[in-house]
Amino acid sequence: MKLSVPFIPNEEYTTFLKNEIQNIESVYFSLDSDQVLDSRMRCNPATLQELSKGLHHLKSVKAYGLLNTRFIHPGLYHDTSFLNQILDKLEYLVAHSHLTGIVFSDAYFLNALSGTKRDILACLEAVPGINCMIDSSQKAMAMFEIIEQSGFKFPGKIVLDRSLNRDIRQLEKTGNDIRKKFPPIRIELLANEGCIYHCPFKFVHDAQISFSNTGSVANKTFQTNHAIGCHVYFFNTPEKFFKSPFIRPEDIDAYAAIADTIKLCGRTLGINFLCRCICAYIQKSFEGNLLELMDATHWLSDHYHIKNKKLDPGFFNMVTNCTKACKECSICRNLFLETAINKPFTLKPYKDFL
């Protein structure tokens, strides 16, 4: 299956993607804006000119701008100047590169953009983001209805919630039901987030990121997760990582009859991480530390080395038949003891963060 991957307009990374273009279905990227409009913490987005120049080298793949923040400042929904500035940027990328559409999570924001009645709307697919958590065909249909009413172009694909990666029966049913009603649509799965299964912190974590990205408060999400969130969860029970609904590179063929593309995340972790990750999923094999392919739990790779190849050959069948009744089971604990090594503390070279 082809991949959907982050795009960063770095010359080395762009060349890497160009060389692997036959394996790439689409790229996605953050837009340059005074407001942070995507779902991650504030970083340094590229300018429109940098994005356009980089995307010019990747003409044969689809390109999606990220407007997938959980919410924006409420006043901006009614700020026509702000909304038109965003659409001006999208219009520029349509004219000067090959922007396919946007990824969104906030239906209020979608309708606010729709209210401008700009012609550019009909040129752009509106794709529901992974954080819409679409885990049933009914949820998908509700989202499609909003999109159809908005004036945006109908999405060419939909990414299903990561929890379905471990529930093959429900995944297959959801994908089939969506395809029956909308035959051309492609089904996409997120492979390497590595977060807690049905994460109980997810909604608040996303909201805190969005809140801090409005500029109203300082970003404290890392400290919160480290003190009372997912970091504590995985420190106390690192074996629960195996319960996370990631898909190993070795297992993507098991989803080939269900899904069309695989999405990879981790754009805040730098181009070295992205190149390593993309290569592993293209080759459908990885010889190293499985944690080094994960986004949300990449930090855990400083503490443990999970020998990915020692998980062969029965890992996929084990996790997709799991009861999730952890108190009654020791399989993940035993597997962690067999495959994971404690790592001594070391300082990383600066280049590892690029």
Short description:
The protein has 354 residues and is α/β, with parallel strands linked by helices. It has helices at 11-19, 48-56, 80-96, 107-114, 137-150, 168-181, 202-213, 221-228, 230-236, 271-283, 315-320, 331-339, and strands spanning 2-6, 24-30, 62-67, 101-104, 125-128, 157-160, 186-190, 261-263, 304-306, 340-342. It has a single domain, classed as Alpha-Beta Barrel (TIM Barrel), CATH 3.20.20.
| Radius of gyration (Å) | 20 Å
Sketch the major β-sheet. 8 strands, parallel
- Which CATH class? Alpha Beta
The assigned CATH architecture is Alpha-Beta Barrel
State mean pLDDT (0 to 100 scale): 94
In terms of structural class, how would the helical and strand content be classed?
alpha/beta
Number of strands: 10
Number of domains: 1
SSE topology string: EHEHEHEHEHEHEHHHEHEHHE
Question: Poorly predicted ranges (pLDDT <50, ≥5 residues)?
Answer: none
The largest sheet has its strands arranged as: 5-4-3-2-1-8-7-6
- Give the overall shape: globular
Instruction: Give the number of helices.
Output: 12
